[in-house]
Amino acid sequence: MLEQLSLFDPAFCQRWRGGKHTWRPVHEGGFDRRRYRLMQMPEAPIRRFVEAHHYSRSFPASKMSFGLLERGHLVGAVVLGVPMHPAVLTKPFPTLGADRAAEISRLILLDVVPSNAESWLLGQLFRLAAGHGLRGLVAFSDPMPRILGGELLMPGHVGHIYRVTRGRYLGRGTARTITILPDGTVLPARAAQKVRAEERGAQGVRARLTALGARPLPETVTEYARAGYDLTPAEWLELALVQIGARRVRHCGCHRFAWPVGDRGWRRRCPIGLTELPYPLATDPAVIL
Q1: Helix pair angle (189-196, 233-244), 10° resolution
Q2: What pLDDT score does 7 carry?
Q3: 173 touches 140 (CB < 8 A)
Protein backbone atom coordinates (compact mmCIF):
# COMPACT_ATOMS: atom_id res chain seq x y z
CA MET A 1 0.00 0.00 0.00
CA LEU A 2 2.87 2.39 0.81
CA GLU A 3 4.18 2.06 -2.71
CA GLN A 4 0.79 3.14 -4.09
CA LEU A 5 0.54 6.27 -1.96
CA SER A 6 3.09 8.29 -3.86
CA LEU A 7 2.60 11.36 -5.98
CA PHE A 8 4.03 9.67 -9.04
CA ASP A 9 0.86 7.57 -9.04
CA PRO A 10 -1.75 9.70 -10.84
CA ALA A 11 -4.60 7.68 -9.30
CA PHE A 12 -4.51 9.83 -6.13
CA CYS A 13 -4.49 13.52 -5.21
CA GLN A 14 -2.90 14.57 -1.93
CA ARG A 15 -4.72 16.82 0.53
CA TRP A 16 -3.85 18.26 3.95
CA ARG A 17 -5.38 19.27 7.25
CA GLY A 18 -3.61 19.93 10.52
CA GLY A 19 -0.30 18.69 9.15
CA LYS A 20 -1.75 15.29 8.18
CA HIS A 21 -2.15 14.17 4.60
CA THR A 22 -5.07 12.27 3.09
CA TRP A 23 -5.78 11.04 -0.42
CA ARG A 24 -8.59 11.66 -2.87
CA PRO A 25 -8.92 9.38 -5.89
CA VAL A 26 -8.62 11.12 -9.24
CA HIS A 27 -11.66 9.34 -10.64
CA GLU A 28 -13.99 10.89 -8.05
CA GLY A 29 -13.93 14.20 -9.97
CA GLY A 30 -16.14 16.95 -8.63
CA PHE A 31 -13.83 19.92 -9.07
CA ASP A 32 -15.84 22.86 -10.38
CA ARG A 33 -13.50 25.73 -11.21
CA ARG A 34 -16.42 28.18 -11.10
CA ARG A 35 -16.52 27.80 -7.31
CA TYR A 36 -12.88 28.80 -6.81
CA ARG A 37 -10.63 31.79 -7.15
CA LEU A 38 -6.86 32.08 -6.69
CA MET A 39 -5.83 35.56 -5.63
CA GLN A 40 -2.87 37.34 -4.11
CA MET A 41 -3.28 37.89 -0.37
CA PRO A 42 -1.32 39.48 2.49
CA GLU A 43 1.33 37.24 3.98
CA ALA A 44 -0.14 37.07 7.51
CA PRO A 45 -3.28 34.95 6.81
CA ILE A 46 -1.38 32.70 4.38
CA ARG A 47 1.36 32.21 6.97
CA ARG A 48 -1.21 31.15 9.58
CA PHE A 49 -2.86 28.78 7.10
CA VAL A 50 0.41 27.15 6.01
CA GLU A 51 1.77 26.77 9.53
CA ALA A 52 -1.51 25.18 10.62
CA HIS A 53 -1.87 22.66 7.80
CA HIS A 54 1.42 22.04 5.95
CA TYR A 55 3.42 19.05 7.21
CA SER A 56 6.55 21.21 7.65
CA ARG A 57 4.71 23.58 10.05
CA SER A 58 6.95 26.32 8.66
CA PHE A 59 6.66 29.31 6.37
CA PRO A 60 9.40 30.20 3.88
CA ALA A 61 10.89 33.58 3.01
CA SER A 62 8.21 34.76 0.64
CA LYS A 63 7.99 37.00 -2.39
CA MET A 64 4.23 36.63 -2.95
CA SER A 65 1.43 34.73 -1.22
CA PHE A 66 -1.74 33.45 -2.86
CA GLY A 67 -4.91 32.00 -1.38
CA LEU A 68 -7.37 29.59 -2.96
CA LEU A 69 -10.86 30.75 -2.05
CA GLU A 70 -14.02 28.70 -2.32
CA ARG A 71 -16.84 31.22 -2.13
CA GLY A 72 -14.91 33.35 0.34
CA HIS A 73 -13.39 30.54 2.41
CA LEU A 74 -9.63 29.90 2.36
CA VAL A 75 -9.11 26.28 1.31
CA GLY A 76 -5.61 26.35 -0.18
CA ALA A 77 -2.45 28.37 -0.50
CA VAL A 78 0.56 28.84 -2.75
CA VAL A 79 3.69 30.70 -1.70
CA LEU A 80 6.27 32.04 -4.13
CA GLY A 81 9.44 32.15 -2.10
CA VAL A 82 12.95 33.54 -2.12
CA PRO A 83 15.44 30.64 -2.09
CA MET A 84 18.51 30.64 0.14
CA HIS A 85 20.80 31.19 -2.87
CA PRO A 86 20.07 33.13 -6.10
CA ALA A 87 21.58 30.28 -8.14
CA VAL A 88 18.43 28.24 -7.45
CA LEU A 89 16.74 30.62 -9.90
CA THR A 90 19.56 31.76 -12.14
CA LYS A 91 20.79 28.27 -13.01
CA PRO A 92 17.55 27.28 -14.76
CA PHE A 93 16.93 30.86 -15.96
CA PRO A 94 20.36 32.33 -16.82
CA THR A 95 18.91 35.41 -18.56
CA LEU A 96 16.64 36.35 -15.65
CA GLY A 97 17.73 38.08 -12.49
CA ALA A 98 16.53 36.70 -9.18
CA ASP A 99 13.95 39.50 -9.08
CA ARG A 100 12.18 38.13 -12.17
CA ALA A 101 11.94 34.51 -11.03
CA ALA A 102 10.68 32.77 -7.91
CA GLU A 103 10.40 29.37 -6.26
CA ILE A 104 7.07 27.66 -5.60
CA SER A 105 7.92 27.07 -1.95
CA ARG A 106 4.54 25.86 -0.67
CA LEU A 107 1.46 24.43 -2.36
CA ILE A 108 -1.23 23.06 -0.08
CA LEU A 109 -4.91 22.18 -0.56
CA LEU A 110 -7.30 21.23 2.23
CA ASP A 111 -9.16 17.93 2.20
CA VAL A 112 -12.39 19.68 1.19
CA VAL A 113 -10.96 20.50 -2.25
CA PRO A 114 -12.00 17.83 -4.78
CA SER A 115 -9.43 15.98 -6.83
CA ASN A 116 -7.95 17.33 -10.05
CA ALA A 117 -7.66 20.90 -8.76
CA GLU A 118 -3.88 21.13 -9.03
CA SER A 119 -3.46 21.69 -12.74
CA TRP A 120 -6.10 24.47 -12.75
CA LEU A 121 -4.50 26.08 -9.69
CA LEU A 122 -1.02 26.08 -11.24
CA GLY A 123 -2.39 27.52 -14.47
CA GLN A 124 -3.90 30.39 -12.48
CA LEU A 125 -0.66 30.84 -10.58
CA PHE A 126 1.37 31.12 -13.79
CA ARG A 127 -0.99 33.82 -15.06
CA LEU A 128 -0.91 35.80 -11.82
CA ALA A 129 2.87 35.51 -11.46
CA ALA A 130 3.37 36.79 -15.01
CA GLY A 131 1.03 39.69 -14.24
CA HIS A 132 3.40 40.69 -11.43
CA GLY A 133 6.39 40.74 -13.76
CA LEU A 134 7.80 37.28 -13.08
CA ARG A 135 9.05 35.34 -16.07
CA GLY A 136 10.23 32.08 -14.53
CA LEU A 137 9.12 29.73 -11.74
CA VAL A 138 11.00 26.85 -10.14
CA ALA A 139 9.69 24.06 -7.91
CA PHE A 140 11.24 21.11 -6.11
CA SER A 141 9.72 17.80 -5.07
CA ASP A 142 11.20 15.64 -2.32
CA PRO A 143 11.29 11.97 -3.42
CA MET A 144 12.33 10.53 -0.03
CA PRO A 145 9.41 8.97 1.92
CA ARG A 146 9.46 8.96 5.73
CA ILE A 147 7.83 6.10 7.66
CA LEU A 148 7.31 5.88 11.44
CA GLY A 149 5.91 2.73 13.02
CA GLY A 150 4.52 1.56 9.69
CA GLU A 151 2.71 4.88 9.13
CA LEU A 152 3.60 7.01 6.13
CA LEU A 153 4.53 10.40 7.58
CA MET A 154 5.63 11.96 4.31
CA PRO A 155 5.21 10.35 0.91
CA GLY A 156 7.87 10.52 -1.73
CA HIS A 157 7.04 13.28 -4.20
CA VAL A 158 8.23 12.92 -7.78
CA GLY A 159 6.31 15.94 -9.04
CA HIS A 160 3.37 14.40 -10.88
CA ILE A 161 1.42 17.68 -10.81
CA TYR A 162 4.45 19.48 -12.21
CA ARG A 163 4.67 16.96 -15.02
CA VAL A 164 1.04 17.36 -16.07
CA THR A 165 1.47 21.15 -16.14
CA ARG A 166 4.44 20.73 -18.50
CA GLY A 167 7.13 21.72 -16.06
CA ARG A 168 10.57 21.14 -17.54
CA TYR A 169 12.38 18.51 -15.50
CA LEU A 170 15.96 19.66 -14.93
CA GLY A 171 17.37 16.87 -12.80
CA ARG A 172 18.09 16.93 -9.10
CA GLY A 173 19.19 19.67 -6.80
CA THR A 174 22.33 19.39 -4.71
CA ALA A 175 22.83 16.14 -2.81
CA ARG A 176 23.32 16.79 0.89
CA THR A 177 23.02 15.42 4.40
CA ILE A 178 19.71 16.40 6.01
CA THR A 179 18.45 16.31 9.60
CA ILE A 180 15.10 14.51 9.90
CA LEU A 181 13.07 15.20 13.03
CA PRO A 182 10.87 12.58 14.74
CA ASP A 183 7.74 13.93 13.07
CA GLY A 184 9.22 13.24 9.63
CA THR A 185 9.96 16.88 8.80
CA VAL A 186 13.39 18.23 7.96
CA LEU A 187 15.26 20.78 10.04
CA PRO A 188 16.53 23.15 7.34
CA ALA A 189 20.17 24.17 7.49
CA ARG A 190 19.02 27.80 7.63
CA ALA A 191 16.87 27.09 10.70
CA ALA A 192 19.79 25.40 12.45
CA GLN A 193 22.02 28.38 11.69
CA LYS A 194 19.47 30.73 13.26
CA VAL A 195 19.82 28.81 16.53
CA ARG A 196 23.62 28.64 16.42
CA ALA A 197 24.01 32.35 15.71
CA GLU A 198 21.04 33.50 17.83
CA GLU A 199 19.51 35.16 14.77
CA ARG A 200 15.94 36.35 14.35
CA GLY A 201 13.67 33.30 14.28
CA ALA A 202 15.84 31.21 16.61
CA GLN A 203 13.16 31.22 19.31
CA GLY A 204 10.65 29.61 16.95
CA VAL A 205 13.10 26.87 15.98
CA ARG A 206 13.89 26.16 19.64
CA ALA A 207 10.18 26.00 20.44
CA ARG A 208 9.69 23.48 17.64
CA LEU A 209 12.45 21.24 19.00
CA THR A 210 11.18 21.61 22.56
CA ALA A 211 7.71 20.52 21.44
CA LEU A 212 9.32 17.36 20.05
CA GLY A 213 10.90 16.53 23.42
CA ALA A 214 14.08 18.59 23.76
CA ARG A 215 14.71 20.21 27.13
CA PRO A 216 14.17 23.98 27.00
CA LEU A 217 17.24 26.14 26.51
CA PRO A 218 17.03 28.12 29.79
CA GLU A 219 16.65 24.93 31.84
CA THR A 220 19.55 23.23 30.10
CA VAL A 221 21.86 26.26 30.27
CA THR A 222 21.20 26.60 34.02
CA GLU A 223 22.01 22.94 34.57
CA TYR A 224 25.30 23.23 32.70
CA ALA A 225 26.19 26.47 34.48
CA ARG A 226 25.85 24.72 37.85
CA ALA A 227 28.37 22.18 36.62
CA GLY A 228 30.75 24.98 35.70
CA TYR A 229 30.29 24.67 31.95
CA ASP A 230 29.15 27.40 29.58
CA LEU A 231 26.68 25.90 27.05
CA THR A 232 26.66 27.73 23.71
CA PRO A 233 23.54 27.86 21.50
CA ALA A 234 25.28 25.59 18.98
CA GLU A 235 25.98 23.01 21.69
CA TRP A 236 22.38 23.20 22.92
CA LEU A 237 21.20 22.49 19.38
CA GLU A 238 23.34 19.37 19.08
CA LEU A 239 22.18 18.18 22.50
CA ALA A 240 18.53 18.86 21.62
CA LEU A 241 18.78 16.84 18.40
CA VAL A 242 20.16 13.89 20.35
CA GLN A 243 17.40 14.18 22.97
CA ILE A 244 14.61 14.01 20.41
CA GLY A 245 16.22 11.27 18.33
CA ALA A 246 16.76 13.28 15.16
CA ARG A 247 18.52 11.44 12.37
CA ARG A 248 21.04 12.66 9.80
CA VAL A 249 20.65 10.91 6.48
CA ARG A 250 22.11 11.38 3.03
CA HIS A 251 19.66 12.88 0.54
CA CYS A 252 20.26 12.50 -3.19
CA GLY A 253 18.68 15.85 -3.95
CA CYS A 254 15.13 16.99 -4.70
CA HIS A 255 13.71 16.87 -8.21
CA ARG A 256 13.78 20.26 -9.94
CA PHE A 257 11.14 21.63 -12.33
CA ALA A 258 10.93 24.96 -14.14
CA TRP A 259 8.32 26.91 -16.11
CA PRO A 260 8.80 30.05 -18.19
CA VAL A 261 5.71 32.19 -17.56
CA GLY A 262 4.31 35.04 -19.62
CA ASP A 263 3.20 35.30 -23.22
CA ARG A 264 3.47 32.31 -25.54
CA GLY A 265 6.37 33.75 -27.51
CA TRP A 266 8.47 34.16 -24.37
CA ARG A 267 7.64 30.68 -23.15
CA ARG A 268 8.88 29.25 -26.45
CA ARG A 269 12.13 31.21 -26.70
CA CYS A 270 13.08 31.38 -23.00
CA PRO A 271 16.66 30.09 -22.57
CA ILE A 272 16.96 27.26 -20.05
CA GLY A 273 20.37 26.91 -18.43
CA LEU A 274 20.14 23.24 -17.46
CA THR A 275 19.64 20.10 -19.51
CA GLU A 276 16.05 18.91 -19.75
CA LEU A 277 15.75 15.25 -18.74
CA PRO A 278 13.03 12.54 -18.77
CA TYR A 279 10.55 12.83 -15.92
CA PRO A 280 11.27 10.74 -12.78
CA LEU A 281 8.91 7.82 -12.22
CA ALA A 282 9.81 6.37 -8.83
CA THR A 283 10.50 7.60 -5.32
CA ASP A 284 13.75 7.06 -3.45
CA PRO A 285 14.08 4.37 -0.75
CA ALA A 286 12.11 5.27 2.36
CA VAL A 287 13.69 6.37 5.62
CA ILE A 288 12.37 4.36 8.56
CA LEU A 289 12.23 6.55 11.66
Answers
A1: 130
A2: 39
A3: yes
- Distance between CA 99 and CA 269 in Å, rounded? 20
Q: Is 165 helix (H, G, I), strand (E, B) or coil?
A: coil
Cβ contact 134:261 at 8 Å: yes
| C-alpha torsion sign, points 200, 189, 76, 111 | negative
Dihedrals φ, ψ of 22, to 5°?
-135, 175
Cβ(140)–Cβ(254) below 8 Å:
yes
pLDDT of 11 reads: 57
Contact 194, 205 (CB under 8 A): yes
Per residue in 100-125, pLDDT tens?
A: 999 999 999 999 999 889 999 999 99
Q: How many CB atoms lie within 10 A of CB 189?
A: 13
Closest CA to 154 of 254, 12, 14: 14
Please tell me the pTM assigned to this model: 0.86
Question: Which residue stretches of the chain have pLDDT < 70?
Answer: 1-12
Sign of CA dihedral 87, 93, 97, 101: negative
* Residue 1 confidence (pLDDT): 34
Q: How far are the Cα atoms of 83, 148, 200, 207, 242 from residue 235, in angstroms, in the given order? A: 27, 27, 18, 16, 11
